[in-house]
């Protein structure tokens, strides 16, 4: 009998985690794919062997919402932030970007209506930037603004494999003030319900994995609270949440969820943070709408009352509300987690970003992608969810919803060998010195996290390591990222929970 063929890599000694359970098993990798999973003694010989004894082995995270290129040229952000991502266990990014923020050579800091064009004009730049500068794999979610963009959805799906589209509903009218998001973030045209209707109509026609992601937060009403709170002299950080109360998130979902029901369009609710929103999600599902929901590490870990809670859209809610988000994540009301990673404009240092006055504090905070897995692992440590559920909401469900399942999101034969080794016993006293993001700081500074990733592999190549005794994780890879095309019109894989 001939000897079995040698493979590129095998990872032995670890405990493999899937949504259905854990087991001691090894993984064999060849040509960037998983080719075998089984008892270590049964794996074929390998040119490299990695010992994962004492560690848990999970798939690379599929982070479906990130915004590199939002405030600086895309290539500049990818060069640093994709390293932060892969070092933290994320191997696939769904980058949300408007047409003006996709790697064009001329970066417009404040976008005007005349700057906004077709995604046909920008997509070659985007793909080139990803494949030359990213350390992780990437798919695109277009942030839609115009009738032309909406009408071209079938072309985008066919030519570029783009099947997910974002409606940044808080920025429908870029002329309104104060604090209106938009021009600096690349949105300059503004849009109305007619654009929303066409985006949903044409996305629904794609079939699976066509989906419309929605940022639900009615700033047309928030501006009234904004004016009142300023008049009261409020400057504390909790003011940011009070200017955009719970019902503004839920009301937007109810309004645009009705469009989704009428058009048969699957929707994905970004940053679902309130019980009122969860009731709307369940109501829509009860009416037959395919309605998914996401939350993120900052809403799970912080409350608006805390000193380092910071300012973000949608806002952080009260500390008393956090158990509601964890419960919704456990019970399947929320299907996925995402980082919403962005590095703020200009000098992103802590000193330049911080201000005691909420109106002067810089919106958004960095290092979110580096918070994603640690906060989830802390949730496992605290008993908020199981490790199996973590894999489901951070790996499997995002891959299924956004159409990269079969390649990403699981430790299974035929999938990409995107693998993260996790030490559940590793206790990390977080400080700013351990982050990879170019801003150099994290809101987790001063927190203790139980459980951390100690190695990441992208398609079988080791990209990072945190060796015993080392002060931080080290990036040891290259810009090996690939652009991921998705194919519309397929069958929806498996059954995602429908509560």
UniProtKB/TrEMBL annotation:
According to the entry, every stretch annotated as the Amidohydrolase-related domain falls at 316-431
A molecular function (GO) held by this record is: hydrolase activity, acting on carbon-nitrogen (but not peptide) bonds, in cyclic amides
On the tree of life, the source organism's domain of life is: Bacteria
Q: Which UniProt keywords apply?
A: Hydrolase
Q: Which cofactor does it need?
A: Zn(2+)
> Which SUPFAM superfamilies does this UniProt record tie to the protein?
Composite domain of metallo-dependent hydrolases, Metallo-dependent hydrolases
Would you name any one GO CC term? cytosol
Its protein name is Amidohydrolase
**Organism of derivation:** Conexibacter woesei (strain DSM 14684 / CCUG 47730 / CIP 108061 / JCM 11494 / NBRC 100937 / ID131577)
